[in-house]
Amino acid sequence: MSRSFLGWPAFPEAAAREVGNRQLRENVRRATHTIRGKRAVLAAERPDWEQLRDSAAAIKDRVLAGLEGYLLQVEEKVTAAGGTVHWARDAAEANRIVTDLVRATGEREIVKVKSMLTEEIGLDAALEAAGINARETDLAATIVQLGDDLPSHVVVPALHRNRSEIRDIFAREMGRHGRPAPEGLTDDPAELAEAARLHLREKFLGAKVAVSGANFVVAETGTLVVVESEGNGRMCLTLADTLISVVGIEKTVPRWQDLEVLLQLLARNATGERMAPYTSTWTGTVDGDGPRDFHLVLVDNGRTRALADPVGRQALRCIRCGACMNTCPVYERTGGHAYGSVYPGPIGAILNPLLRGLDDPQTASLPYASTLCGACNEVCPVRIRFTDVLLDLRAQVADGGRHPVERVALNTVGAAMQRPLLWKAAVKGAGLLGPLLPARTPVPGWTDNRALPDVPGESFRTWWKRNEGERA
Amino acid sequence: MPPNAPRSRTALFVTCLNDTLFPGTGRAAVTLLRRLGVEVDFPPGQSCCGQMHFNTGYRRETARLARHFVDTFGGYEEIVVPSASCAGMPAESYPLAAVGDPGLAREVAELAPRTYELTEYLTDRLGVEDVGAHFPHRVTYHPTCHSLRATRLGDRPHRLLRAVDGIDYVELPAAEECCGFGGTFSVKNPAVSGAMNGDKARHVLETGASVLAAVDNSCLMNIGGRLTKDGHPVRTLHLVEILARTAQDGPLPGLPVVEAAR
């Protein structure tokens, strides 16, 4: 049974629950601050950092402006290289295509390369329903899967877990899914890594079918690119007979040369490394080397909807480095699950509403899951202006009539603010009423952990009139 | 002022929050600006920059308040604002609110470069860092998110503070982290906001300062509200209320006095 984000509560409710988990808060704080610090050092050592960001944004914008043409080019090149391209409008269609492809091989046990898109569409659960056991092979994704958990971060899905929690999961679950954890496993990182290595090795050597995502798809050659730290992805990509890559349409880049910019930014932002340990590329099929059968499933699942949003479309530049969540003070207190999606943090707060629309209360709550502090704007490698998109989405929510009481209140106050006499009376009234109010009048949500300031008896404007009126 | 006198060049936009809840900030701004020779006026028609409306998603209402702002301040050569977040509205947000109203957009574009956050006005426009202030207390400073990223004040407030006579200035740990106020964020997401604010308050206490300063009373209201609720006697003061005090005023009553540590 796999958990899913289906039916997740709106952000304030889910976040309140997560904030109360002290262990989780400490895990997330520690992990994000570590990556944040390493990233800052590596960004600072590049004199051309800002130009790299400009270039990356320009590359991605060029792709988005001509997406249809680049995708057709991808289809042509992949087909010419011996692969088969499939198009999926939504999650259900993508899952059906992958399930049918796996069924056709007759295999029941397959391996997976870490992929946020397959998490987004719920592929593991769909395969499970079809009697296919898909095992994750990335260390963090393995921890999440064994723990029947959900990813909490796009780069480090198990970032919310500490070593002792991981030890417990391995000791309890590994034996049910293959090679058990060694007796007396401790929470020493080297021991944990070795346990995972032995457990996963069986999967790699036995699997005939692998499912991957991709960080980039190069249109000019039909080449797919996966960036990872452990080499598990490369094992899957090279050992399987059949490789099925499930990729969001926005992952396209025009040329190989674009990777020069994007790969430098991705490694430094994602893990605080100058270069990722493993960067694998594959193009179609070659006789006698690697998978004999290659399928590329290009998935929309709301991306054309996001593309149609003039302000929000910049979210599709995202290269999933996670820098925005590592720097976000809200994410730091909640972890990823509060966002009800595999995309948490600032990118989740904008991408989920853009992909899925603002019709349900969960996605409509996400644009408000930010203080607008702007820290994310400053680290984004593709220069997504998160605060602009958040504000625009808030305007869409407000215009959609979701907050009727708030609208009336703000309209009323706003109307008074445009009428000097009315506003003057209101300010004066606040000053007169202030001292009469019971001290520390409660305000829902605010006064739980804050005292309100006293309302002074004299407003500034009254003071000014008293002094300056006489002076004049 | 005689009716036919030329209109003064510099207007104080005191902001709605300061007007109603923190009038001391406005009074200090007037005191300080006059001490520095600025003839400052308070246009009484002023109300609110519309930030609360804008940040909550109400753009048409923001556009109406932007129109009101332009009508109120359009005749002044300079507009000084003792709030980084409100000072950032004309340049940052009015253009977005004015989409579809080219007339308003034009007037906003003309007014925005003349709108200054107060510390920026002191350092860049008046060219002063030592404003002749005296404040013999231990002070720490919270750089608000809008002062960092909307009005981009950089180290201007720190330079002004360090030049204060008698002050014992201490750096705030994790200073650049948001306090969790975020306007309606603190109402819509009280649990997360409370957690962020709690961490900020803890850092303030770590400094041993008796005063927390900032250039936005909204954030100070948030952090101060937490400190008060938890029973800590740390005072929150807008930066200008420190800068306005001179040796003649003496120490601020009720605060521990420190030996000069400059």
UniProtKB/TrEMBL annotation, chain A:
Under PROSITE patterns, the record lists: 4FE4S_FER_1, 4FE4S_FER_2
Which keywords appear in this protein's UniProt record, sorted alphabetically? 4Fe-4S, Electron transport, Iron, Iron-sulfur, Metal-binding, Repeat, Transport
Give the highest taxon in the source lineage.
Bacteria
Q: Name one GO biological process term.
A: lactate metabolic process
What are the recorded GO MF terms, alphabetically? 4 iron, 4 sulfur cluster binding; metal ion binding
Domain 4Fe-4S ferredoxin-type: start-end pairs: 308-338
Q: Which InterPro entries match?
A: 4Fe4S_Fe-S-bd, 4Fe4S_Fe_S_CS, FTHF_cligase-like_sf, Helical_ferredxn, LUD_dom, LutB/LldF, LutB_C, NagB/RpiA_transferase-like
Name this protein carries in UniProt? L-lactate dehydrogenase complex protein LldF
TrEMBL record, chain B:
Any one GO MF annotation of this record: oxidoreductase activity
Where does the record place the Cysteine-rich domain?
11-89, 139-223
Q: What is an example of a Pfam family matching this protein? A: CCG
Q: What is the top-level taxon of the source organism?
A: Bacteria
Cellular component terms (Gene Ontology): cytosol
Q: What is this protein called?
A: L-lactate dehydrogenase complex protein LldE
